[in-house]
């Protein structure tokens, strides 16, 4: 985790959290006096759990309209005490919040389509509401600017503030802006209907980081941008004219301890006792939702009605308690849904109730926190039937309160929470009344042992994926994104300076060559008739052998592939092999050493393997590799469009099943999906490997030359910066060096003193293959270029180590590359001497 402390002055990183709603809402208690209460809704609950690592201020609407300057001042002062800064909207509020936000954007985001435009009411046209929306976003901008200090991070929340990133960047392009969407993002087909679609998307793309709850929502967003704006969607995010907007997934959580502790309070225990007495002899099904059409309350009641119809024996043994928290009452659609819900409650209670008992207890109100916890704790079943929901924190809160009871969560598959809690819940399609009814029955009859098992899985998830983690993950990514984009602006990677690479190689005494395997040494695999077995590029064999046999050169192949594959291919070479990103290391003697952490959980592997096999069978020319701790599905040779679609489905299957609660890294490569037990990155592993090399080779002269190249995934690109910092760090004093970078990787690095690594002459070449954006210093177009340079290095090595070297061997392997042929031809003629490379015509 990144530390945000500025050590030099002891200050914490300042953070402005900007959301439509402040965590508290003001209630007028008298003239110029206010009481402040916690605002309802999951966004506020989530944000309350965000870490205290930051010096945080909140910017948002205080929940009341204030039209008088004196009143505004009084309220602002009360809010300032709790670090809240109000935004007052005046007359714009109705058209902004009820109109554009909740009448237009909310239904679109939840796949409900646009409402009918009312041209007779000029206040209700899309245009007037859109203008109000922009005006409200400008009001936010003004308040932020007033309170902004250089270096502040600005974290914007939700669909209310989609123009804010653009407005802030227009004011000052250096403001660090992240934006997170709490609701779902719809498919492009739905978003396309929005008249202002392009402007909204363009504004979002000015942010540095965009976050979503689930992979689905993020990928909908990317494909919407691709289709509507014609920008490029990459695994990193969206690329538009060279600017990268990072898009990533951050599933929100709750503060589980707040709920766990509340359930132990005497007053909550008392409320629990009273509730149990009140519902003695009955099972309690609980629903807690804002009274919003997306929450599927009517569908819930219809499912429950069907259950009562079909299960007579349960009629007087079960009760559904529904807390329907009032919300957005000024939006007509919300009033309609309220009427609909009331109609259904009347009908069902009329049909199945008696003088002494009613099947549905429906409350049109919010409840206080303690009572809510008591309800969660005594419920036997939690019923969530959202038609679409960003996350649904109510499901998390229920699980946190169920340590004693271990009740069952019945959860809509259309809630974001289904991705995270799907393993322990009974998932339902809320539109299928019969399925909801059956799920209720299954939940009520579920044996204790199974309830316990399901609860355990979900409880573990809720405990570990807290709101605090969510906040930290987002902030950490924002921080990194910004430093990366800083780097990108400052330095666009250059083409490889071959001559320099060779000259420096020839002049150094202890060289390290680190190479990726797939896509680096295998060569491009574009030929559809090619054998799919991974093979070493035949053009490399001679060169690699020469390099590996040079006592002044150590060659390491670092791959996500497993031991068996690497061994099969490189068994005959005098080479170091780091399989599964360094979890297995084989030195030149051929012995493997394992670095798998003892507590690594690999329970997910078998289930995931089945999913990989299923998709491999159904995607011609795709294949998958399984190793001890990881699985890689590759569709480079399949039809790319089909492969991509299959990859999306495969990920859904994985998230919904085998890996839903597992500690894994999921990496979506250009043509691959990889699942790895949470492990080190290549950048971290390389430190350890370096130590081993130094130990094993009893290094006496420092490594004075590093060449590192690969077709690496973004997260593994820290391997490039590992050595890069060594160059920088050799320029700074030892003391400064220990605080040089805050990342874990560099902390490991500081152990390497200059008698192990000595790259100060710039003898470090990090070379990415075919990546537009990379942390490497240099970029080459394809693995052919890597082959080419390795062959040239091999020539130098061979010339230096052998008197009777046959140039024709190397020459034969380089038939395809005209430049190289010319170069080798030239060597033949001139009888190259070591150190002579600068004279060669490249
Ligand atoms: O502020 P309101 O208009 O009263 O609405 C309350 C909040 O509703 C939405 O909440 C979403 O955020 C939750 C946390 O991420 C998520 O679990 C849930 O699925 C979403 O519906 C809305 O996005 C917030 O802005 C509102 O504050
Ligand atoms: O009377 C109530 C009942 C519930 N909640 C809270 O409202 C939030 C609902 O969040 P969720 O993510 O489930 O949905 P949202 O309402 O944000 O769409 C949860 O944190 C609940 O604890 C509340 O504030 N008052």
Describe this structure as you would to a colleague:
With 842 residues, the chain is α/β, with parallel strands linked by helices. A 9-stranded mixed beta sheet has the order 5-4-1-6-7-8-11-10-9, with helices on both faces. It has a 9-stranded mixed beta sheet with strand order 18-30-29-28-19-20-21-22-23, sandwiched between helices. Residues 1-8, 525-532, 727-750 and 804-842 have low confidence and may be disordered. It comes from Brassica carinata (Ethiopian mustard). In the N-terminal section; belongs to the glycosyltransferase 20 family. In the C-terminal section; belongs to the trehalose phosphatase family.
How many helices? The count is: 30
Hetero groups in this structure are:
the ligand O=P(O)(O)OC[C@H]1O[C@H](O[C@H]2O[C@H](CO)[C@@H](O)[C@H](O)[C@H]2O)[C@H](O)[C@@H](O)[C@@H]1O, uridine-5'-diphosphate
Shape category: globular
Determine Rg (CA atoms, Å). Answer: 31 Å
Count of strand segments: 30
Multimer state = single chain
Low-confidence stretches: 1-8, 525-532, 727-750, 804-842
Q: Tell me the helix content.
A: 40-55%
Strand order across the largest sheet: 5-4-1-6-7-8-11-10-9
Q: In percent, how much strand structure appears in the residues?
A: 15-25%
- Report on the biggest sheet: 9 strands, mixed
Distance between the termini: 46 Å
Secondary-structure content class: alpha/beta
What attributes characterize this protein structure?
alpha,alpha-trehalose-phosphate synthase (UDP-forming); disordered N terminus; binds uridine-5'-diphosphate; globular; 43% helix; binds ligand L263DTV3; alpha/beta; nine-stranded mixed beta sheet; disordered C terminus; transferase; alpha,alpha-trehalose-phosphate synthase (UDP-forming) activity; 842 residues; Trehalose_OtsA; EC 2.4.1.15
């Amino acid at each position: 985790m990144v530390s945000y402390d500025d050590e030099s002055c002891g200050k914490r990183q300042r953070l402005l959290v900007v959301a439509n709603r402040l965590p508290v809402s003001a209630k007028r208690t008298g003239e110029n006096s206010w009481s402040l209460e916690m605002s309802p809704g999951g966004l506020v609950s989530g944000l309350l759990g965000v870490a205290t690592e930051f010096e945080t201020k909140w910017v948002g609407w205080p929940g009341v309209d204030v039209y008088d300057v004196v009143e505004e001042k009084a309220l602002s002062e009360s809010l300032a005490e709790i670090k809240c800064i109000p935004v007052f909207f005046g007359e714009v509020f109705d058209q902004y919040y009820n109109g554009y936000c909740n009448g237009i954007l909310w239904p679109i985001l939840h796949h409900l389509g646009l409402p009918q435009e009312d041209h007779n009411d000029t206040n209700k046209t899309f245009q007037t509401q859109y203008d109000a929306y922009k005006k409200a976003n400008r009001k936010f901008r003004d308040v932020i600017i007033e309170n902004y200090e250089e270096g502040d991070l600005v974290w914007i929340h939700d669909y209310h503030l989609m123009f804010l990133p653009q407005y802030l960047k227009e004011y000052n392009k250096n403001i660090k802006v992240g934006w997170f969407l709490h609701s779902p993002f719809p498919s492009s087909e739905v978003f396309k209907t929005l008249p202002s679609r392009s402007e909204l998307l363009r504004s979002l793309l000015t942010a540095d980081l965009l976050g979503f709850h689930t992979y689905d929502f993020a990928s909908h967003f990317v494909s919407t941008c691709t289709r509507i704006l014609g920008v490029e969607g990459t695994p990193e995010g969206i690329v538009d004219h060279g600017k990268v907007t990072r898009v990533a997934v951050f599933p929100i959580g709750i503060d589980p301890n707040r709920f766990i502790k509340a359930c132990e309070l005497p007053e909550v225990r008392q409320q629990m006792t009273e509730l149990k007495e009140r519902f003695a002899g009955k099972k309690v099904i609980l629903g807690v939702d804002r009274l919003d059409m997306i929450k599927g309350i009517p569908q819930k009641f219809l499912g429950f009605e069907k259950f009562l119809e079909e299960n007579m024996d349960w009629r007087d043994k079960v009760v559904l308690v529904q807390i329907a928290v009032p919300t957005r009452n000024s939006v007509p659609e919300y009033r309609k849904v309220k009427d609909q819900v009331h109609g259904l409650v009347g009908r069902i209670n009329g049909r199945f109730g008696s003088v002494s008992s009613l099947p549905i207890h429906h409350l049109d109100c919010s409840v206080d926190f303690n009572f809510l916890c008591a309800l969660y704790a005594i419920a036997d079943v939690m019923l969530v039937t959202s038609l679409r929901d960003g996350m649904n924190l109510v499901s998390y809160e229920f699980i946190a309160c169920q340590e004693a009871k271990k009740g069952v969560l019945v959860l809509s598959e259309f809630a974001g929470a289904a991705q995270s809690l799907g393993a322990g819940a009974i998932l339902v399609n809320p539109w299928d009344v019969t399925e909801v009814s059956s799920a209720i029955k299954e939940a009520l009859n579920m044996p204790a042992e199974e309830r316990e098992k399901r609860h355990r899985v979900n409880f573990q998830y809720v405990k570990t994926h807290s709101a605090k983690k969510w906040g930290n993950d987002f902030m950490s990514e924002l921080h990194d994104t910004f430093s990366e984009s800083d780097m990108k602006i400052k330095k666009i990677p250059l083409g490889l300076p071959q001559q320099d690479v060779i000259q420096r190689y020839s002049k150094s005494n202890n060289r390290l060559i680190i190479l990726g395997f797939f896509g680096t040494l295998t060569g491009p695999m574009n030929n559809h008739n090619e054998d799919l077995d991974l093979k070493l590029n035949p053009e490399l064999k001679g060169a690699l052998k020469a390099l590996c046999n040079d006592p002044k050169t150590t060659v390491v192949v670092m791959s996500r592939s497993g031991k068996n594959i690497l061994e099969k291919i490189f068994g005959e070479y005098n080479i170091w092999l780091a399989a599964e990103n360094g979890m297995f290391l084989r030195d030149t003697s051929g012995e493997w050493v394992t670095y798998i952490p003892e507590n690594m959980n690999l329970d997910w592997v078998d289930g995931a393997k089945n999913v990989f096999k299923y998709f491999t069978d159904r995607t011609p020319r795709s294949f998958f590799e399984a190793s001890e701790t990881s699985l890689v599905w590759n569709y480079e040779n399949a039809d790319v469009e089909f492969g991509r679609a299959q990859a999306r489905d495969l990920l859904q299957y994985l998230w919904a099943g085998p890996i839903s609660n597992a500690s894994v890294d999921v990496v979506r490569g250009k043509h691959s999906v990889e699942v790895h037990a949470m492990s080190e990155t290549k950048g971290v592993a390389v430190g350890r490997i370096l130590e081993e090399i130094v130990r094993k080779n009893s290094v006496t002269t420092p490594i004075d030359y590093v060449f590192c190249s690969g077709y690496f995934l973004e997260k593994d690109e820290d391997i490039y910066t590992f050595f890069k910092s060594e160059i920088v760090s050799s320029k700074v004093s030892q003391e400064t060096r220990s605080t040089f970078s805050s990342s874990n990787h560099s902390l490991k690095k500081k152990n390497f003193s200059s008698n192990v690594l000595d790259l100060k002459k710039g003898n470090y070449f990090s070379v990415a293959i075919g990546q537009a954006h990379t942390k490497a210093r240099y970029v080459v177009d394809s693995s052919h270029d890597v082959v080419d340079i390795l062959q040239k290095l091999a020539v130098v090595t061979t010339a230096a180590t052998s008197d009777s070297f046959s140039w024709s061997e190397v020459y034969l392997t380089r038939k395809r590359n005209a430049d190289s042929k010319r170069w080798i031809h030239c060597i033949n003629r001139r009888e190259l001497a070591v150190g002579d490379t600068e004279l060669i015509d490249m």
